[in-house]
Amino acid sequence: MYFKEIIGQQAVKTHLIKTVKQGHVSHALLFTGGVGNGKLPLALAFAGYIFCENKSETDRCGKCAACKKMDVLGHPDLHFSFPFVKTTSIKTCNPQMREFISTVAKDPYLDLRDWELQIASENKKSIITADESNEIVKRLTLKSFAGGHKILIIWHADKLNPSAQNKLLKTLEEPEPKTLIILVTDSAEDLLPTINSRTQLVQCEHISDEVMANALVERFDTDRTNALNIARIADGDYAKAKKMVAANQSTSKYFELFSQWMRAAATNDYYKILTACDKISKLSRDEQQNFLEYGLQFFHQSILYAYVGKEQARFDNEAAGFAVKFAPFMVSNDLAGFHDILSDGHYMVKRNVNAHLLFMKMGSDMAKLFKTRTPQHNS
Question: Per the database entry, which stretches of residues form a coiled coil (predicted)?
């Protein structure tokens, strides 16, 4: 991974490069920020920049022996620890190390859920065990192969159970010379305070819709309008955005279903609510989540439209027209209530509840909200 391949994160890249140039690389870093914003790619690019024998002002050279090894994540002084599904025979991540490296080399923006589905045939959650922490300590006591830095990247460090975290405290506080530990997490608050206090925070930036859309247009065969709409749904999560593009998902499909569902709820037409819910429940789980995220974005933009001003709302043409027609309802109704219904539904979809029953209940709840108010128009 090269810095130039990372989407956005310019301020973070500049900061990391500066620490190397000035010789101020901390021995323990905590990369945190939103889901899918490129923390692991940043950690990989940073490691490669440190290893590079002929680094430039902005990136690694790509030609030296160290860079050639980093191109395939095969540098002998680069180590990984990551979540795995514990079994009676798998107590550390070593048995899946080769698969993990191969997967990350192909897709550094790897999503944790995709990784869990890849390594486990059943719907099981992954962890990083105390046994794995013992392995980490052993790895970091070994001498460097190349005579320079040893670098360990702990992906989704929040998956370290409390016992595993405690076993790393001494290593984080007093590491071997020229040892760098990079913890990568979406949720630093899930780490013990003693872990946070022993690491230097690197806050990774939210990827803006514009930057995300530019990347999608450059890297995939999609038009800018669709790319921008997908970027809005993804909300800074590039892993989600590229999956939507790869699955050829268009936000037009979500708008069509969402507007049909809302019209049915607004008129409290049971048959139309049922028809809309039939269509929504036939979507895949991922698509149902994307659909609800589209709806959440719609209500968020509607709040801006209604209470801040239409120039602040970011609607595509289809949604803008729909929002204008529904503005009398949206201003007078409890927008937060609609938002909560969709937010709760999004949570339940992740829990694999019966989709048809869930969306019927949500449609019914929204119909009640519409029914309790009368349309009003802003002057």
Answer: none
